[in-house]
Structures are given as C-alpha cells and as structure tokens.
User: Which sequence fits this backbone?
C-alpha cells in the first residue's frame, strides 16, 4: 500500500476495543494473502464508497424539537445496488454502520446475490418514544437519505428495533416524494404492501439450515442435541423453534432481561409466548436464572449468538463449551476470540453466511416487487434452502482447500467475487 494512502486512512482501531470497523479491517488483512492478483484491489474494501451522516430533527409529542443523528453507508456497489438494514439503537455509531455495511457486501457475495453492501441507523432508544414519534423519526430520516437510496441504487430493510411497520413508513415517504408507489425501495414490508411470505423468519431459518449442515459435517446427532441461544427475538426465537421441532433441546437462553438454564430443555413454545407477552426471557417458568457470564460456560452442542456484535471476546472465548457456534448476529466474535476458538477446535459458522437468510429472502422480495409476481412460502423456503446449502458447501470446500477456518473461507469466496467485479469494471475516470 502506498505510504500516503496508509497515512490518510481513518483509524478506528484500539488495542483493547477495535470496534466493529476495526474488526472488519483485520478480517480483510487476514484474507488478503489468499486473493492472488486480486490483492492489488483489496484496499478498496477498506474504504466505503459513500458515508452519509444526517441530522434528523423531529417535533416530539410535548411540542419540543429533538435532534437525532442518522447514518447511511454504502460500502461496495460493484456487484449491484446496495442492500442492508436500518437499525434504531442508542449505541449506533458510524464505525458500527460502516462495519455492518461491509459485512453486507461480504454476505451478499457469499450467497451469490446481485447486491452490494449498505447499512443505516439512527442513534435513538426507541423505548423512550411513542409510536407517533418513531414514525416521524422514520419519515424524516427516509427523506434525508432519499438522495442516495433507490430501487436500483440502495434498498434498505429492517434490522435491530425496526420492523415491517417501519419499512411501510419508509416506503410511503419515499413514494410520496417520487410521485408514484415504489414497493421495491425497501424490503421486509408488510404483505399487503408487497412484502414477501417467509421474510419474517428467514434469518432464523437460515441459521437453522446451516446449523444442521454443520452438525452433519461434525457428526452431531441433532436428536437430543443441546442448543444455547443468546438473543431470543426474531432470529433466536425462530432458530429455537426449528431446532426444537427436530428434537433438539434448547438448554440456555439469554437476552437483555435475563439468562435462563434448564439442562432438560426449555419449553420453547411457552418461552416464545412469554417473550411476546413481556418483551424478554426474564422471569419465564420452568427454568433456573443464572448469572449472565455463566451463559458462555454452559455445556452445549451448538451455541447461537443472535444478539449484537462483539459478544464473544478474548475474555470469554476460553469459557465456551460448545462444539459449534452459528453466528446469528452480525460480528458477534472478535478476531482474537476467533483465534482462541479455532485453537480449541470449536467450529464457527460465520455470520456472513449463517445469518444471510434474511437478505436472501429480501432479494426474493425485491425480485417479486419488480415483476409483480409473488411466490408461495413453500417456494421461498425451498429457494432459500438451496441457496444457503450451496453457499455452505462452497465455503466448506474452500476451507478444506486452503486449510483455513470457515470464516476465512467465506471471506476468500466473497472478497474474490467483489474484487473480480471491481477489476472488471475498472476505475472511472
């Protein structure tokens, strides 16, 4: 890398806490030796194509005006329009959104979708605001980023603390400005507005599909196998239900309300109902409440981190007693923790494939919107399974060929596809 470029590169790295963007940069450095002649383009992965920071002023219910900071980052558009969710969370930062957009570039490339990577977010704690206030925040944010999004430019979707209703507001706002209904501007919409069947549970279903494939490769009989899940929302809850249906036992769960353990298996359906009624797993019946740190030490066959990034670090990686980790969340494992887990023989199915079910069905939704022809849920689930298993097989073969971890193999596959497109397109002007 030329010296001047190195000096001008923005740094988010910290020896103790590299942050999400720092983690992504290290992942790129680790994969560069496997890219051959394409490595000359690898630094383009370290620079998002576009980063937009917007002010989101909103009149609150009491008449006062509040300001929130919003972001939309487009990491790579070499393989197609940007694709990535929008999260509402009090801890959203530019570093986080940059990393999430980059992981979306990798994710869409791993599963072979004709998309690039993007991500958005607003720094807000939605629990502190009314539904009307959240709607106004959503609409103003959509207007502020409307210059860089579009059906063939960048397609937002739901993420942490956003849902189908949020997407409906975003679609309506964009459509009002465009002067025509634009259903393809977002995915994850309600079904009456052009949403896709199977989208709500797609990410959790994808976690389940690759988890089953990894267990088969590892020789684990999933009948009676133990499953631990961090995060029991849409992703973790769906995965829990699907594993439970094939006879696995969910022995430990954790979310922001508590940590529960039952060596004989939790009643998943009752737990899902409890979470729907109360907002979290805390206080659920027929389970023992344990300390948060003890969750990582629970002996289990498959561990599914499905909460936020940076949960598995060098401080707790040694405690983990799982045979397989299937990353339902984005970036839940730091590079240092990855090294510890690999040295201990723990198989890690990386987030860029494990949770790609959501973006895959989002792609199906986008295609259905473009054609105004809609598929059955059976067709969608079958197409999803085919794409996920093909991507898993490719990743496994690459890992065996290069004698590397599944994460490195996924990055080799994805970065090769992204940089091949970059090289073929060249630089303009």
Assistant:
């Amino acid at each position: 890398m030329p010296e001047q470029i190195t000096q001008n590169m923005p740094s988010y790295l910290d020896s103790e806490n590299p942050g999400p963007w720092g983690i992504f940069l290290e992942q790129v450095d680790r994969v560069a030796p496997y890219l051959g002649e394409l490595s000359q383009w690898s630094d383009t992965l370290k620079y998002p194509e576009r980063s937009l920071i917007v002010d989101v002023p909103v009149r609150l219910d009491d008449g006062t005006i509040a300001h929130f900071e919003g972001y939309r980052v487009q990491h790579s558009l070499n393989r197609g329009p940007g694709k990535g969710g929008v999260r509402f969370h009090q801890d959203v930062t530019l570093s986080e959104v940059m990393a999430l957009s980059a992981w979306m570039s990798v994710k869409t490339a791993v599963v072979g979708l004709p998309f690039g990577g993007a991500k958005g977010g607003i720094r807000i704690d939605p629990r502190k605001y009314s539904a009307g206030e959240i709607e106004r925040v959503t609409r103003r944010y959509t207007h502020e980023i409307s210059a860089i999004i579009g059906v063939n430019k960048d397609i937002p979707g739901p993420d942490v603390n956003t849902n189908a209703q949020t997407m409906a507001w975003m679609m309506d706002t964009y459509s009002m400005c465009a002067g025509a209904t634009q259903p393809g501007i977002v995915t994850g919409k309600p079904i009456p507005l052009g949403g896709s069947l199977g989208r709500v549970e797609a990410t959790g279903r994808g976690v389940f599909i690759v988890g089953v494939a990894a267990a088969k490769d590892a020789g684990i009989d999933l009948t009676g196998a133990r499953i631990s899940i961090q995060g029991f929302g849409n992703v973790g809850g769906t995965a829990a239900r699907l594993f439970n249906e094939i006879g696995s036992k969910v022995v430990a769960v954790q979310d922001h309300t508590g940590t529960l353990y039952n060596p004989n298996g939790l009643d998943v359906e009752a737990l899902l109902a409890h979470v729907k009624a109360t907002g979290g797993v805390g206080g659920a019946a027929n389970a023992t409440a344990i300390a948060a740190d003890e969750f990582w030490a629970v002996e289990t066959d498959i561990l599914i981190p499905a909460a936020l990034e940076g949960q598995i670090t060098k401080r707790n990686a040694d405690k983990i007693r799982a045979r397989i980790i299937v990353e339902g969340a984005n970036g839940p494992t730091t590079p240092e923790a990855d090294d510890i887990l690999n040295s201990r023989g723990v198989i890690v199915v990386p987030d860029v494939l494990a949770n790609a079910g959501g973006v895959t069905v989002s792609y199906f939704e986008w295609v259905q919107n473009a054609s105004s022809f809609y598929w059955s849920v059976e067709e969608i689930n079958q197409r999803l399974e085919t794409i996920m298993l093909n991507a898993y097989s490719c990743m496994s073969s690459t890992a065996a060929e290069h004698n590397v971890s599944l994460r490195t193999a996924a990055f080799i596959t994805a970065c090769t596809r992204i940089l091949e497109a970059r090289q073929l397109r060249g630089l303009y002007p």
Notes: The chain has 13 helices and twelve strands. The longest strand covers residues 65-76.
